[in-house]
Each structure stands twice: as C-alpha cells, then as structure tokens.
Amino acid sequence: MTTFYRPRRKAYASLSIILVFSSLVLLSACSEDKDYSSPFTVRAIAEVQDLTGDPTTDRDLPSIADAKAQLGKKLFFTKGLGGDQDSACVSCHHPMLGGGDGLSLSIGVEAVDPDLLGPGRMHDPAGTNYDGGPTVPRNAPTTFNIGIYDQVLFHDGRVESLNKLTGFNGAENPDDSVADLGISTPDTGLDPDTNVFIADPDAGGNLPTAQARFPVTSPEEMRGFTFVAGGTNDDVRIELEAQLATLGAGNWEAEFEAVYGDPAITYARIAEAIGEYERSQVFVDNPWKAFLVGDDNAISESARRGAVLFFFPSFSGGAGCVSCHRGDFFTDEQFHVIAMPQIGRGKGDGDDGTDDFGRFRVTNVETQRYAFRTPSLLNVTETGPWGHAGGYTTLEAAVRHHLNPQTAIDNYDFSQLESSVQATNMKLNTQKAMDQLTANRAAGLFTIRDIELTDDEVADLLAFLETLTDPCIKDRTCMAPWIADCSVSDPDGLCLTGKDESGNSL
C-alpha cells in the first residue's frame, strides 16, 4: 500500500486544507479500512470538499435540440462567417477533436484544404501571411463545458464576467437586489484612467455569447488578412451580417425567422445562437461522477490512489493539484504563472514581438506577466495538446511540467512539435516566464511549488485524470447531435464537412 504521509518540504497550508486533512484522518480512523485509497476514504475526501461529480447542478443549460442551439450549430459549421469564406468556428473546435483541433497551434484562415481539420492541416504557401508556420499564436481551447465557466474565457481572460457569480455563466443574477455589472470584452477592456474593466453593452447574456463575437474579428482565425482591411471589430461584424444575408438565396433569413420570428440577420443574434450551441456541449458523465454516486468499480485502484495524490496538499505527500483545479469543474478560473513553453509566433509582445505576456496583456499587472487561466480538467485526456501554446503533446509531459517547471524547460523536446511550428526565441521566452514564476515565488505570491513524485505516482495521477473523461466524446454516434450534417442542412453551400488527413469524415 502506498503511503501518502511522507513529509517532503515546507509549505504553508490554508485553514481549509488543514480542515480537509484533519477530516480525512478522522474519517479514516472511524473506519475499519485504513487504506487511504479505499473507496470509502476517497469519497470522504470528496465529501469534505463538497464534490458531487456534477458541475451542472442548478445551472440553466440548453439542449442541443433547442432551436437556437440548432441554428448555432449551422452557423458554427459555415465558412460563410469567415471573411474569405475559407474558415469556420469548427475549423479550430470540432466535436470529434475534443472541442479543439488536436494541434499545438491552430491553422485558421488560408489552409491548404479548408475542410481538413486537426493533424495535417497546413497553412497554404500561397497565403497572404505565409511564413511556414501556424497562423494562430495560441492553442485552441476546448468548447466542451464552456457553459460552466462563470468568470472568464480565453487563455488570458479577455472576456470576463464582472459579476463573478457562481452558477450563471457570466449572466446577470435574476435577483434584482444584486446589481448587474456586465461582461468586459476586448472591445471595452480596461479603463486606463480608473484601472477598472468596462462592461461591453453588446456582450450579450453570457460568456460564450460574448466570446463568439471575437474569432470572426481575428485575422488569423476567421477574418483573413484582407477582409475589411483597416476596419474595426464592429465593421467586420456588420460586413459579415451582409455577407451571410447574400449567401444561400435567402436561406439564412428563413433560418433566423424560424428562430426569432423575423428574418433579420444581426451579429447579436449570430453570437447568441453560437453561444447556445456551445453551451449545449455538456459532457460530464464520466467514471469519476459514477464513482462518487456509489459505483466502486467505476474507477481503478490506481485512479483512487491518484485521486488522493490530487486532493492531498503537498506538505502531506500529495501533489496539491486541487490548489488550482478545485470543485466539480476542476478549476479556480484564476490566472497563474507556471512557465509552460512559449512556442509559436507569439502575440507580438517583447522586444522582438515573439513573446506572449498572457494575462498581463489584459490587466497590465506585472505579476501576471506570463499568467494564463487555469483550465478545467474535465475531458482533459482528449483536449490536448496542453498549455496555452500547446507546448506538450502528451498529458504526462504536461503533468511532469507542474512538478518542476525549470527541469521540464531544460529538458524540453522540440521534436514533439509539428515541424512547422515556429520556435524563434522559444527557450529565451520560456525562461523569462520561469523567471517570473521565480519572482512570484520569492514575493510569497500563491503559485505552484516544486514537488517530487515517483513514476508510479505520476501513473496514478494520470489514471485519475482519465476518469474525468466522458466516454461520449470519443464516440461518433454519441456526438452526432453536435455535428452538422452538410448533406441535409447547408443554408449557404459553405458547410464545412470536416475530414482527417486520411480523408475520413470527422
């Protein structure tokens, strides 16, 4: 039996962690079974932390069968929302690719074959902005369970609920006693005079709706490099409204009239429908949930040991993952500097424009330079590559990075990346991120600490993470309701059919 109480390092525990630890000891002492990885004890750990396995409790989430979600699916799959009609939302977020694209860095516009998604998708050498590598500077985050985020979206949180209310997906609390503060977006951002985020009056009713307003305005993702050149984000959206209206001989007007009661195509409606489609992507029926409600055989003994490591603080021999990946959604929705590899073209930051300053780009807070949002771990085994730039192509490597970032950086293997990924100044920029982590540690700011785990313990952690994956997302039949059938419904003739590099349908 693995022992999880070997002290390793000095740490400072919060009262809540101490209470979790103490409660576990008491619960185990009352049990005849002293195995700390027994089903009884693992459930006790979960109970102390109020875990049920279901992050959707008391949430108002749409069904994929809802009319707006169905319209959103059609919009999500049409290249008609691409400025050059060569990319769609699904280009980087396909349901059979973990709600992402399986690439470290995405190819949005100017792909050799717009319908080829995932590995093998390449930037066309004849493209306007071709430089041999991916066009998008960050990894495509999964759209799965996007309706459960309450605070921020995007790696840097540039779409942010100012309400910060749990359970509302960024929407206004229907309780009139609580003032609605709205949602901040890149169109409003931070007031330079007051250093306060400004609510976007056009953000819509929830975070996914607000998020859906921006991929179409990004030159690399969907806008293209010549579409409405020099225009504002709103100029792009207005032109896309007009473009959609001219496509399909009035078919889109009929689609909007069926849902909204009139044929008006507005980007507010487009974003709302796409947001409802994304919010319907709820995949939380995993083995961990089954275990918590009573099925002892739902997860393995190795996974149970991994759960103990995951939830135990580092000072008691655990991995302390729960410090950032907490709750049934397995995220604190906060921003942390963990020095994940800085690869690709970057976001134009730094002296040479090859760097990506993360949350600092939004807040201008120095300690948030290289900080990125904590992602949910639900379905994490299927949502790689991992890191804001997709620097790790295996989950094990991503996990090991958290144990000792400097060692991981020093031993980083460039061969794991697609051959086309730009790596200019990668090591230099990554070490700068590590230096920020070191500075934050020295300042006593909450961050990850170096820990030691055996290979067996790492394997146990990975076994636990595997239990967080809903089997549905790996089953094409189960996922069919979220995948547009272009042979049946294609309002503008631009439905992206989706195929892998072997030509097989996704």
The CATH superfamily of the largest domain is Cytochrome c-like domain
Which stretches are poorly predicted, pLDDT < 50 over at least 5 residues?
A: 1-19, 26-34
Strand portion, in percent?
under 5%
Strand order of the largest sheet: 1-2-3
Q: Count of DSSP E strands?
A: 5
Number of domains: 3
How far the N terminus sits from the C terminus, by CA atoms, comes to: 44 Å
CATH topology of the largest domain: Cytochrome Bc1 Complex, Chain D, domain 2
> Main sheet?
3 strands, antiparallel
Q: What is the string of helix and strand elements?
A: HHHEEEHHHHHHHEHEHHHHH
Which structural class do you get from the secondary structure elements? Answer: mainly alpha
**Helical element count?**
16
Q: Brief overview, please?
A:
The chain is an all-alpha fold and 506 residues long. The chain has helices spanning 15-29, 39-48, 67-77, 207-211, 219-223, 233-246, 251-260, 267-279, 287-292, 301-311, 360-363, 395-403, 405-410, 426-442, 455-466, 476-479, and strands at residues 152-153, 159-161, 183-184, 335-337, 371-373.
